[in-house]
């Protein structure tokens, strides 16, 4: 019982972070499960997805309540993300866990570099409407879904900086749309991992319970933070995740 309660508390912390950054909490859960609990990369990703799926759905609803998400834009991202996430997850289950972990570290560092470039490049005010529609949203959804299926993070971490840099969205609008992308892609990825026995269900369900209790607080914090602070915090968050995984290599 004490162990289960610890997983709930752990999930609560991850849920808060997931709400703040619009990612469902999986990015930090995956390296933490590997480093603290000794799970291999595929099992850590599958177990984290049990928490991520309900967290993403709740965070998506909270973001939509505060800033309406365009259903056509969400559908363009979500459908392409779903198909490519399925392909990415099938690819992931056959890879060497150590190689996947190193690839995940490189993936996180790439995201840090992309976010830092966006922060210190020429600033443009967020556009009232996205600069690009279909098929560019579909292409972004496909790429983000593929990366999400491969690394078990839902693709939101890829889509958010691209939506701000190339599509002109504000940080919170980008995070809401990224959650619309992540919702179907995390679901199909979880199904694929579960079918290949890469999920620790008791641990994942306890973390999910904790995440659902706290993610709404994270969304409130995201809307209260200045845009630049939120982006800087996101970069720091990604660096911490990369360092945690590097300790496991």
Describe the structure.
The protein is mostly helical and 249 residues long. It has helices spanning 2-21, 26-37, 41-66, 71-92, 97-120, 136-151, 156-165, 171-195, 201-224, 227-248. The protein is globular. The chain starts with a helix and ends with a helix. The mean pLDDT is 84. Pfam families: TauE. The chain crosses the membrane at residues 7-37, 43-63, 75-93, 99-117, 137-160, 172-193, 205-223, 229-247.
Main attributes of the structure:
249 residues, mainly alpha
Q: Quick gist of this model?
A:
The protein is mainly α.
**What string gives the helices and strands in order?**
HHHHHHHHHH
Biggest β-sheet description? none
What structural category arises from helix and sheet content? mainly alpha
How far apart the termini lie comes to 31 Å
Which whole number gives the mean pLDDT?
84
Shape: globular
Q: Could you name the ranges where pLDDT drops below 50 across 5 or more consecutive residues?
A: none
Using only C-alpha atoms, the radius of gyration works out to: 16 Å
Question: Count of helical segments?
Answer: 10
Work out the number of β strands: 0
Q: How large is the share of residues in beta strands? A: under 5%
Topology of helices and strands:
Layout: H1 2-21, H2 26-37, H3 41-66, H4 71-92, H5 97-120, H6 136-151, H7 156-165, H8 171-195, H9 201-224, H10 227-248
